[in-house]
Amino acid sequence: xxxxxxxxxxxxxxxxxxxxxxxxxxxxxxxxxxxxxxxxxxxxxxxxxxxxxxxxxxxxxxxxxxxxxxxxxxxxxxxxxxxxxxxxxxxxxxxxxxxxxxxxxxxxxxxxxxxxxxxxxxxxxxxxxxxxxxxxxxxxxxxxxxxxxxxxxxxxxxxxxxxxxxxxxxxxxxxxxxxxxxxxxxxxxxxxxxxxxxxxxxxxxxxxxxxxxxxxxxxxxxxxxxxxxxxxxxxxxxxxxxxxxxxxxxxxxxxxxxxxxxxxxxxxxxxxxxxxxxxxxxxxxxxxxxxxxxxxxxxxxxxxxxxxxxxxxxxxxxxxxxxxxxxxxxxxxxxxxxxxxxxxxxxxxxxxxxxxxxxxxxxxx
Length: 365
Prior knowledge:
Elements: E1 2-6, H1 11-26, E2 30-35, H2 39-45, E3 52-55, H3 67-90, E4 94-97, H4 104-112, E5 117-121, H5 128-136, E6 140-142, H6 146-150, E7 156-158, H7 173-179, E8 188-192, H8 199-207, H9 209-214, E9 218-222, H10 228-238, E10 242-245, H11 251-257, E11 260-263, H12 267-275, E12 280-282, H13 292-303, E13 306-308, H14 316-326, H15 329-342, H16 347-361
Parallel strand pairs: 1-2, 1-4, 2-3, 4-5, 5-6, 6-7, 8-9, 8-11, 9-10, 11-12, 12-13
Helix pairs in contact: 1-16, 3-4, 4-5, 7-11, 8-14, 12-15
C-alpha cells in the first residue's frame, strides 16, 4: 500500500514522521513525505531516496486580520490544491499528519478523498494547529498520556512518540566518547537546545564552565548556529574538555556518550532522552505556544525523570549544582529508571499499525 505522511517545519515533527515512514517502508509499503519549504526539512530529508519527498507551500497562522492573514489563506489553498493533485497521482491509502500547519492541507485533502486520516501530537497539550487538525482528521495519536485529559472531546490513542531507526543503533559509552575526542572515563554532560539552539542555556553553561572544569566534567554542547564560536572559545578559556558544534547528525552517539543532559523540553528531545535513559535538567523555551514545553517538563519531573528549571532561574551556579546532583550514582540510577517508565520503545510500529489497520478497512475513518 501507499501512505502519505506530512511531517515538517521542525525536527520535532519531521523526525518522528520519518520513523513511521521507515517502519512502513521496511514492511514493503511506499511512502510520500510531505514537508515544508524550510531549510531544516531539506537537510533532514537529503538522500532519503527510499521515500518520495514533496515540499508544500505554507506559513504559520498569523493573528488577526491583516495582509499576512491573506497571504496565509492563499498559501493554504495552494497547499490543499497541490496535495489533492499529489494524492490523485500517488493514491495513498491513508494520511498521517505529524503536527503543525504543514499537516493541515494534507489532512484536509485526504478527507476530501475519503481517506483515513490521523494526526500525531507529541506534546502534553496540542497546539492551535493540531487542535484544528484533530477536528478535521479521524483520530488523534498522542505521545504522552497527559495529552488525553486536555482534549476530552477528541478520540485519542496513546502510541508514544516515534524515534528514528538510526538512534536505535547505539555505540557503547566509551566508543561514543572517543568519537567526540573525549575521555572515555570522565563524567559527561550533553547540552542541547533543539535544532536552532538555545541562547539561554548556552549562556548559563558558559557561566558554569569554571565549576565544570574543577569537577572534571566534560561536555558535548550542541549550540545551534548562532553561538558555536562563542561557546567553544569560552570552554577553551576555562579549560573544559568539550566537543562543541552547531548541529550533530549522529545523535545516537551524543546520547550514548552522556551521563546526563541539559536540554529544552520539546517532545522529540524528551522522547529521545527517555529512550536513552538520560536524567536531565529541563529548561523549557519560555515563549513556546501555550507554554507546552513547561507542561512537557512537568510530566518528566512528576515521573522523577528530569528536573524542571525555568530559564529565568537557570543561573550558572544552580545549573552546575543540579548537574553535579544528577551525577551522584544513587540519584542517577533512580532517574534513569524513571525514564524507562516514560519510554514507548515501539511507538513507530504502533503508529504504523494504526495506519495499516485503517487502510486495510478502507474508507473514511
